[in-house]
Design goal:
By secondary structure, the chain is α/β, with parallel strands linked by helices. The protein is elongated and about 105 Å long. The longest helix is centred in the middle third of the chain and has 21 residues, at about 230-250. Helix content is about 15%, strand content about 30%. The protein has two domains: about 5-225, Spore Coat Polysaccharide Biosynthesis Protein SpsA, Chain A (Alpha-Beta Complex); about 255-445, Hexapeptide repeat proteins (UDP N-Acetylglucosamine Acyltransferase, domain 1, 3 Solenoid), CATH 2.160.10. β2 (about 30) and β3 form a beta hairpin. It binds uridine-diphosphate-N-acetylglucosamine and calcium ion (CA).
């Protein structure tokens, strides 16, 4: 029962029906490659190692996994050519220790739950061959579970099955748990004398029965957990089904979703009490929403943390990739706002429409309500940053900081050429291009003086001659 768990993930298949250059197991569900979902589940089992069998697109698959941070010890084995699931497992044998319990998973079956696999592992108990099975109204294409009385006798593939066997609704899911010391000699005995001329992993059931090893089936009813992906349509279908489950789990925690069918979570969304989310929002990576946060319709929020009471109005795009974005308590953002990496908004900050903030901190109560850009800026408390104003933070080679001290009022359509500091309580007249730092309390105006020519006659259009 306490054997270490070694996971083998079959991921050599081509996925022809995806009609994609990307290997099937790297297609994305909920923002992550299919294979990554499988490995995340394996990690939840506290597996000792994961052996990934690659074939089609092997370099791409291996590179994708090496760049992802997985807590699992991973090994890759190549299967070339692909001669069947049994042949795939034969390639994994040198990578498997004899004392392990081997859990066989498929790289294109992303939504199996860890507790289901735990139950399968318990059913194997380190000494039996345990199969994950499910009954389908239409079992066409699957390996059928042939029983005598209650006892599992064999798995018969669709193409090898008799008419009577094809009527069996209980099928093999493609997932099993089997002690390595039993598995290895069985794999050595496989042949390809069957309708497809393939080495079938499923033939080990017959060997177990012949060797007097008990074969047990752990049967589930939740088809989503064993659903494999072969086509874009199936991928989209599984995505929706998965998203609906995520939505249901959020609602069970008390999150108010205007429409659970119009939500996409591609990562981890953590919500405190009384969060409200309007339709068509997308959450990516790690997103935290504090108590009472309201997210308007059509927002995209990635890698960010929104503090209690903040309101994100519709069509706002927040992307904190790498450095994160934080929005303070009671802040108001949007509609049509854009917060980029390193935007750190304090409490009660207001960011209005068509305002972009990047790598800038805004202290409590600072406001930029219309059509503005703040990049590499440090903005003090209660600053009012006028419509159309920008920080010129980039000289073509380097980025420079703009410091706007507390209580500054920047008029409309100003250019603050960094590096520059606007002293506390100062005022910058509308339309100014500020290139030198200003003293606290000063009014600074830097623009062409207005002239007015009295009774000026506008040029007239010439009449055609
Ligand atoms: C297999 C099972 C079948 C089961 C079904 C569940 C066998 C012989 N049959 O069917 O009983 O009902 O899964 O979906 O095992 N793969 C490789 N190398 C190969 C062949 C396959 O890595 O040479 C991988 C595929 O990429 C896939 C997995 O193994 O991830 C299953 O292969 P697939 O062809 O989908 O399974 P079937 O043969 O249809
Ligand atoms: Ca096949």
């Amino acid at each position: 029962m306490n054997s270490p768990i070694d996971v083998v993930v079959m991921a050599a298949g081509k996925g022809t029906r995806m009609k994609s250059r990307l290997p099937k197991v790297l297609q994305r569900l909920a923002g992550a490659p299919l294979l990554q979902h499988v490995l995340a589940t394996a990690a939840q089992l506290q597996a000792r190692c994961a052996v990934v069998i690659t074939g089609h697109g092997a370099e791409q698959v291996e590179a994708a996994l090496q760049s992802s941070a997985s807590p699992l010890a991973m090994q890759f084995v190549r299967q070339e050519p692909q001669l069947g699931t049994g042949h795939a497992m034969q390639q994994a044998v040198p990578a498997l220790a004899d004392d392990g319990l081997v859990v066989v998973l498929s790289g294109d079956v992303p939504l199996t739950r860890a507790d289901t696999l735990q139950a399968l592992i318990a059913a194997s108990a380190g000494e039996r061959l345990a199969l994950l099975t499910i009954a389908f109204d239409d079992p066409t294409g699957y390996g059928r579970i042939v029983r005598q009385g209650d006892q599992v006798q064999a798995i018969v593939e669709q193409k090898d099955a008799t008419e009577a066997q094809r009527k069996i609704q209980e099928v093999y899911s493609g997932i099993m748990a089997v002690p390595a010391r039993l598995l290895k000699p069985w794999l050595a005995r496989l042949d390809n004398h069957n309708a497809q001329g393939e080495f079938y992993l499923t033939d080990i059931v017959k060997f177990a029965v012949a060797d007097g090893v008990e074969v047990v089936a752990h049967t589930i009813t939740d088809a989503l957990q064993v659903a494999g992906i072969n086509s874009p349509a199936q991928l989209a279908e599984l995505e929706r089904a998965h998203q609906l489950r995520v939505a249901q789990a959020l609602m069970e925690q008390g999150v108010r979703l205007r429409d659970p069918a119009r939500l996409d979570v591609r990562g981890q969304l953590e919500c405190a009490q009384d969060v409200e989310i309007d339709i068509n929002c997308i959450f990516e990576g790690q997103v935290r929403l504090g108590e009472g946060v309201k997210i308007g319709a059509h927002c995209v929020l990635a890698h960010c943390s929104i503090a209690a009471g903040a309101v994100i109005h519709p069509f706002t795009h927040i992307d904190g990739e790498k450095t994160g974005v934080t929005v303070g308590e009671g802040a108001l953002v949007g509609p049509f706002a854009r917060l980029r990496p390193g935007a750190q908004l304090g409490p009660e900050v207001h960011i209005g429409n068509f305002v972009e903030v990047k790598n800038s901190t805004m202290a409590k109560g600072a406001k930029a309500n219309h059509l503005a850009y703040l990049g590499d800026a440090t903005v003090g408390e209660r600053v009012n940053y006028g419509a159309g104003s920008i920080t010129a933070n980039y000289d073509g080679a380097n980025k420079h900081r703009t410091v706007i001290e507390a209580d500054v009022h920047v008029g409309s359509n100003c250019v603050l050429v960094a590096p520059v500091t606007i002293g506390a309580g100062g005022t910058v007249g509308g339309g100014s291009t500020i290139t030198k730092s200003t003293e606290p309390g000063a009014l600074s105006v830097a623009r062409g003086k207005q002239i007015s020519i009295a009774n000026w006659a506008r040029p007239q259009k010439k009449k055609p001659s």
